[in-house]
């Protein structure tokens, strides 16, 4: 009887152990599945973040810009630079006129030392080595002299002579003849407003290391060489739109275009394609404002392409959504447009086909060469876009970017 009882108890214990083991196994399996799911979700998010970072790096490379971060506070841009941008760009942000001297880059530098009345210092270090200076200007705003402060010689000399010197010894600012004369202007004794001086020789000296940058000295005298005092607007003392600026008109020895090779990625092409699909899904879901800014196609343009033929569609690049609005002054965005549609045989004149595209479409239609596909819908003419922005030293730069807007589309 005792043996029977122990056998029953033993069987019960084995049964309970099996049940408990099965329950624990199911629990462990559920935990493992949950952890695996979380791990896959984490990996997916990390992969998407990596794609976004590489895409922004590529976009930054296209614009030829340094990593400017998220700077938020800037001085008011010089009036000359904003007027220059408005003069060369139309309302859509497309270039309509060339820069002075046909410059591809215009850089402005604010003064860094206003402690002395007629001494001006601009820090131009860190210039792009791929740029050559076409012209350099010192732009000073001459203030109106109140009648009670007019020097007696103002009434006997109708004109004044303003001279600009390259400082060779900052300890000898009281002796202009010890410095290098760069430019001299004859101006009305009672005039006021902007005065512009050519100082290219000094800038080339500084850039090529022939002489150190010790600043500029400005003097004023009558026609009889009597020294007189005139006032110029200075930084932090007058309105920022009238602050002294040094302006460089530069040419680029190379254009900022991305390399032909794709972003280096050790994974397979199929993995990259999956990332692009995932990225498109994120953008469509509104989870990434950055890429909404790069792909904002309007429904009206899509409806205009009901035939499906090659045509130009709207694509608006919004710098605020990309995250660049804190340092881009103008434009806030621009219509880049893109080309989409089929190039079926026969190609019509509205599709702007080249002779090569026409022949290719015929070869494809007749299946004369199995590997030859249809012509592609691509931009046939492109427009330039100017960009006005702050660099990493808070100086304002106007740069011309070539081939940024699809002006027309066709089959090629």
From TrEMBL:
One of its GO terms (molecular function) is growth factor activity. SUPFAM superfamilies: Cystine-knot cytokines (SSF57501). It holds the Pfam family TGF_beta. One of its GO terms (cellular component) is extracellular space. The keyword Glycoprotein applies. Residues 292-412 form the TGF-beta family profile domain. Keywords: Disulfide bond, Glycoprotein, Growth factor, Secreted, Signal. Residues 1-22 form the signal peptide. InterPro entries: Cystine-knot_cytokine, TGF-b_C, TGF-b_propeptide, TGF-beta-rel, TGFb_CS. It is found in: Secreted. Its main location: secreted. It comes from the Eukaryota. Belongs to the TGF-beta family. This is Bone morphogenetic protein 7. It comes from Zootermopsis nevadensis.
